[in-house]
Design brief:
Chains A, B: Pfam families: Esterase. Two copies of one chain form a homodimer. Chain A is of the alpha/beta class. Helix content of chain A is 33%, strand content 23%. The two termini of chain A are 32 Å apart. Chains A and B meet through strand 1 and helix 9 of A and strand 1 and helix 9 of B.
């Protein structure tokens, strides 16, 4: 693991690293914000999973999260959204919603994707182990959140690892990827044509099948262009209701799918995670 | 004036407009954040002047200012940093520090620049008149701030228009452009070889010559790569001291020249301007 950059920010450090990722068979970059508290103690860690087309840097420059992370004493780790590099296969037409920038936080089973696109293992195992080994975090205090494709990643990763994450939240998540064009395209490519294999990566399916969830918070803009066709927050609300899961899922009038929406509510999300992460 | 985009942000609106700018002989874009208060009343207005290579959008996406503008009920107008368009002359070698993206907030006197590069007139007269005509701002309550080249712009515009701006602040401003490579190159190109003509756009020279200043706040990172050669905060401190001007000019350990530095202190700057703008 090699430090690529370090920049002072809100009395902490915005850091960027690169490392060879075994699960992805390539060199990956990730960003970490360390709050001032990390100078003297191990701090809780919050994983941010970004959406389609993003790298590790969009969140870092646009979300305005550092202020709140500094306030609450939480580290934020922001990984990239797919394997990267000249040797990594990409969508043949360079589509934005499959291949590079669109790993969908699954372990691909179909060649050629299966040799590289194992983002689930990377986010759940490899990256946290690396972070715990090299950075002043308290690996026993982890939470996860994300946006759009990364909201899907955060929800499914929390659902598939009960007891591991203290809390989970999402902005405009893809709630039911097996039932929307983005998810159908990605899952067909990465997981094959058998739709039963897809259900293990669908938050609504997992909840309906009885998977447990830590405290959940979701915000969804009502003016989000992707809401009706791709995101389906209503199905998440219904699935939680059917299982008696108390979740804080809010529609926000006039807000869209952008980082301006994320920035507007990122403080509330970090405060939500901080409460869960600081509980004994 | 045509609206290009509007995005909900912190319960206000992040807006972008384009218009034909007479002073610059081209079509210009600018961004405006309107806080929630602007739905029902005219709000004070703060002009942000960006640094080299920026457009109107860098500040909008990276500074995290909207949160504080929403809190204090202030509109922030962010113009571009030079005239734009295929017909606008640029540095023959496409240098980042002259021509497009590098207007230096002066009125050029040398051809071919003088037909387009009149950023001083644009910022001081044309843009505020347009904003006052079309947007719910209280034009009698204006302040100005900026970064690097835009910090130079904010300081000199405040100094050259005594009584107009309620307050002025800057992040890592070019304090004495007549005495640094960036300023020498730009002023030679825009204003010609007579160094006496440059002094009207040099904050340290203007202060030394007795120009008045509204309340002033400056932050300067000590790890800023441009500090020693280009920025010269010490000369601003000395010039203020020599004239008995009480200014809040702070060095910040470890901070660099980036928007991470700006984001870290933008809240304090907006609070500073808010106090001046809300005074009766």
């Amino acid at each position: 693991m090699e430090k690529v950059s370090e920049v002072r920010c809100f009395d902490g450090w915005q850091l960027r690293y690169k490392h060879r990722a075994a699960s992805l068979n390539c060199v990956m970059h990730f960003s970490v914000y360390l709050p001032p508290h990390a100078e003297t103690q191990r701090v809780p860690v919050l994983y941010w999973l970004s959406g389609l087309t993003c790298t590790d840097e969009n969140f870092v420059t646009k979300a305005g999260a550092q202020r709140y992370a500094a306030e609450h004493g939480i580290a934020i780790v922001a990984p990239d959204t797919s394997p990267r590099g000249d040797n990594v296969p990409d969508d043949p037409e360079g589509a934005y919603d499959f291949g590079l920038g669109a790993g969908f936080y699954v372990n691909a089973t179909q060649p050629p994707w299966s040799s590289y696109y194992r983002m689930y293992d990377y986010i759940v195992d490899e990256l946290p182990a690396l972070v715990a080994e090299h950075l002043p975090v308290d690996a026993g205090r982890e939470s996860v959140f994300g946006h759009s494709m990364g909201g899907h990643g955060a929800l499914t990763i929390a659902l598939k690892n009960p007891g591991r994450f203290r809390s989970v939240s999402a902005f405009a998540p893809i709630c039911a990827p097996t039932q929307c064009p983005w998810g159908e395209k990605a899952f067909t490519g990465y997981l094959g044509n058998n739709r039963e294999d897809w259900q293990a990566y669908d938050a609504v399916e997992l909840i309906t099948a009885g998977a447990r969830l830590p405290p959940l918070k979701v915000d969804q803009g009502r003016s989000d262009n992707f809401l009706a066709e791709q995101l389906h927050a209503d199905r998440l609300i219904q699935a939680c209701k059917a299982k008696g899961i108390a979740a804080d899922i809010q529609y926000r009038d006039d807000y869209d799918h952008s980082y301006f929406f994320i920035a507007s509510f990122i403080g509330e999300h970090i405060a939500f995670h901080s409460a869960a992460l600081s509980a004994q």
